[in-house]
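Re: beginner question about structure tokens

> Can someone show what the tokenized structure looks like for a real chain? I only ever see the sequence side.

Sure, here's an example I had lying around. Input first:
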Amino acid sequence: MKVRKMKRLRILILALCVCLIAGVAETLNMVDAYGEGEEGTTVTEHTHCICGDTACNRTTTEHSNVTFGNVLTSNDNNELLCNDKEVTPNDNYYYTLNEGSYYLQDNVTISKTIKVTGTVNLCLNGKKLTRNYGSCIYIEEEAVLNI
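And the corresponding structure tokens:
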């Protein structure tokens, strides 16, 4: 009888150790994906094919992997932040996104329109970009926005 209880106890301890190791491994994976920003939650970069399909294997110039290295968030005042720094509005009306690759870490609500200049890649990352009122994005003449 005692041998059975000891076996059960060993199995239980083994199962708990496996759960603990799995939890630590998942945490380490999150540390690899997430860097330490001012708030401690900023994702440092995000890479996938421009089409957004993580299983895509096309490798043409127009259809290749993009590293989205700029994180867009908003604060409590609905001001746009890029990599945890406030984006200063031009003419107190537009937030300008210069050429580059950006993605949303969380849902972003802004109080001013985003003006796109150059070629901008924007990954919504399954999140929403909204504005309290008016248009959310303005694409300058000859600029390109890839979403």
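Each token stands for a local structural state, so reading them left to right follows the chain. The longest strand covers residues 70-74.
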